[in-house]
């Protein structure tokens, strides 16, 4: 049997979400930032995401993390979040999944009772604290990327045509009904 490409992955299941972490076998992903690395994959090597996440190896609920070299010296690893829709913003389940994989696969030096990990995502640094016992991740807590906005954001809901206020904001992504938009940190709020 001739194998053209082989990836190493570890599957975890977090809060009902299957998370596949790619730990090896990837080609070099160029880019000076995780954003550039993500854009490179999306534009030049999306077959990797499709092969790992879509059927027959995955399903519509499958999400994944591609580990890469960090671009920031503070980070232990760079991470690129992927799912069936593409390169979306990272989920809580994926942060817990990749942290568990990094501990239990020996990808970071383990210190008991707590190991600290810093991951670099396209949205910024994620600081993670993992409670470890006998080299097994028992609990994961983290401070996600900061979001700075002091205004309420309103949008028209898809059903009924009435104005509603978006109450839940995560990262830099706003999702209301079928409408999605992203704020850039350089944007000024008027």
From TrEMBL:
Gene3D superfamilies: Diaminopimelate Epimerase, Chain A, domain 1. InterPro entries: Pro_racemase_fam (IPR008794). Belongs to the proline racemase family. This is Proline racemase. The lineage of its organism: Bacteria, Bacillati, Bacillota, Tissierellia, Dethiosulfatibacter.
């Amino acid at each position: 049997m001739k194998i053209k490409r082989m990836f190493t992955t570890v599957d975890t299941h977090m809060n009902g979400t299957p998370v596949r972490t790619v730990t090896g076998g990837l080609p070099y992903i160029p880019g000076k930032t995780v954003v550039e690395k993500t854009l490179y994959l999306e534009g030049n090597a999306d077959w990797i995401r499709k092969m790992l996440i879509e059927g027959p190896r995955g399903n519509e609920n499958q999400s994944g993390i591609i580990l890469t070299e960090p671009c920031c010296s503070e980070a232990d690893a760079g991470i690129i979040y992927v799912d069936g829709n593409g390169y979306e913003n990272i989920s809580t389940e994926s942060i817990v999944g990749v942290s568990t994989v990094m501990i239990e696969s020996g990808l970071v030096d383990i210190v008991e009772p707590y190991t600290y990990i810093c991951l670099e995502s396209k949205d910024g640094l994620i600081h993670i604290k993992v409670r470890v016992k006998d080299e097994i991740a028992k609990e994961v807590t983290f401070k996600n990327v900061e979001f700075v906005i002091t205004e309420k954001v309103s949008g028209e809901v898809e059903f009924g045509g009435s104005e509603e206020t978006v109450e839940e904001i995560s990262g830099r992504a706003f999702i209301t009904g079928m409408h999605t938009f992203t704020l850039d940190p350089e944007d000024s709020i008027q």
